[in-house]
Amino acid sequence: RPRSHTVTTTSSSFTANLSASSSTLAYDREFLRTLPGLLMVTEIVLGLLVWTLIAGTEYFLYPAFGWVMFVAVFYWVLTVFFLIIYMTMTYTRIPQVPWTTVGLCFNGSAFILYLIAAIVDASSVTKELDSHNYNSWAASSFFAFVVTSCYAGNTYFSFISWQSRTLQ
């Protein structure tokens, strides 16, 4: 005699949450076409050059290069973090954070500390110090000044954005 088979399907809450959360995930491709976005990508690429050029040497023997490494790695990580925040438009989902002020403080502090680090880097590069590492340290000094100018540009754009928000 034929038996009746009943098949019951259920969807897990994980699947429902996954589909709901992925629909709210935004991706802002246009950010990379703006001047602040291009400056941020340049800061990441050239900042990576700064710290890898120093990391490939015996920088730990010279405290000045340790400072430059700290600044370069610290702001490289934070810049990657902020790029992800801007690319995924996370700032729109966390309105409690004053993003224009955070951006201004971040870019302003990066500009000041990178300027100090670039000056320390340039003033510490001498042929007498260690001729084996001279070219790497000289190149890192050049790129540190270029990254400093990028952070100066982003500080300017952050200030304009901050000023327009505070005047409203």
From TrEMBL:
<protein>
    <submittedName>
        <fullName>CKLF8 protein</fullName>
    </submittedName>
</protein>
<dbReference type="InterPro" id="IPR050578">
    <property type="entry name" value="MARVEL-CKLF_proteins"/>
</dbReference>
<keyword id="KW-0472">Membrane</keyword>
<feature type="domain" description="MARVEL">
    <location>
        <begin position="31"/>
        <end position="163"/>
    </location>
</feature>
<dbReference type="GO" id="GO:0016020">
    <property type="term" value="C:membrane"/>
</dbReference>
<feature type="transmembrane region" description="Helical">
    <location>
        <begin position="60"/>
        <end position="85"/>
    </location>
</feature>
<dbReference type="InterPro" id="IPR008253">
    <property type="entry name" value="Marvel"/>
</dbReference>
<dbReference type="Pfam" id="PF01284">
    <property type="entry name" value="MARVEL"/>
</dbReference>
<feature type="transmembrane region" description="Helical">
    <location>
        <begin position="35"/>
        <end position="54"/>
    </location>
</feature>
<feature type="transmembrane region" description="Helical">
    <location>
        <begin position="137"/>
        <end position="159"/>
    </location>
</feature>
<feature type="transmembrane region" description="Helical">
    <location>
        <begin position="97"/>
        <end position="117"/>
    </location>
</feature>
<dbReference type="InterPro" id="IPR013295">
    <property type="entry name" value="MAL"/>
</dbReference>
<keyword id="KW-1133">Transmembrane helix</keyword>
<keyword id="KW-0812">Transmembrane</keyword>
<dbReference type="GO" id="GO:0019911">
    <property type="term" value="F:structural constituent of myelin sheath"/>
</dbReference>
<dbReference type="GO" id="GO:0042552">
    <property type="term" value="P:myelination"/>
</dbReference>
